[in-house]
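User: I'm preparing a small set of examples for a lab meeting where we compare how different chains pack in three dimensions. I only have the primary sequence for this one, and I'd like the structure in token form so I can line it up with the others. Please keep the answer compact; I'll paste it straight into my notes.
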Amino acid sequence: MAEKAGKNTKGKPVAVVIGATSKWQSDGRNTKLVHGKAVDDSGLPVGVRWGVGGAIAQKFAREGFFVVMTTRTAVNAAGLEKAIHAQGGDGMVVELDLSRQESISAAFATIRNQAGEPQVVVYNAGYLEGRDLPPDKELLEHIPVEMFDTAHHIASRGPFLVAKEVLPAMRKRGEGTFLFSNNASSLRGRKRMTGQSLYYPRVMMRTLAQVLTEEYSEHGIHVANVVIDGTIDSPGTRALPRVRQNPDLVINPEKIADAFYYLHTQDRSCWTHELQLTPFPSKPSY
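Assistant: Understood. Below is the structure token output for the 286-residue chain.
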């Protein structure tokens, strides 16, 4: 008999959002790097205050899931957790550092013990390594090894280790959803421009999603790579001059969350394995 999905004490299916907070939230690392300080998000809709991860967490909570939000430091997700509870949802915050295998193992041990085996896992981890390098340091020769190591941990090694934590139980159960939140740099190698992260390891994340699709679809697990091809609306990005000049260039994270939930609810007779989301004034990346 197939193993049933783990349930928390409230009997809800479990959705885990890896990287539920955003580097562009009001006090995020990138917001402070670009603007020199935190920004005020009190006038923004609650659905956009924590970027994609926060919007996905809120969406699945509204749909009846017990949502586990992971972040490196729990305080980063305190506001998001409070917002979900205020909306009538349920969830918990678990600290998880994707650069450390022991942290990943400990986090999922906590999740299994306190929430249950996940039915849905969304890998939404991001990083900003490389963004603070000056204009004359764009070439790869100027990238410190430590920056590459972090990018590799988040974009390749991290999702590999998360997959090893969650896929065995999904396979035994005969069902599950594992979704990757990716960007246009996963489609092909691109030069890193000033102010951009070292994103070419994202290609490996896309490749991992393709490999897992081939290996686990037949076991009832839906794996998909979501290419978010554009700037995501958030407190930090809204304050950028180019976004203020053309707000149509940003993607609504609540609508991104709808796309992730759509993937989870697809009938298994017609699964989508890659989805690209691009704002209408922009040309899609290839």
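A couple of notes for your slides: The CA atoms of residues 171 and 216 lie 7 Å apart. The chain has a mean pLDDT of 94.

User: Perfect, thanks.
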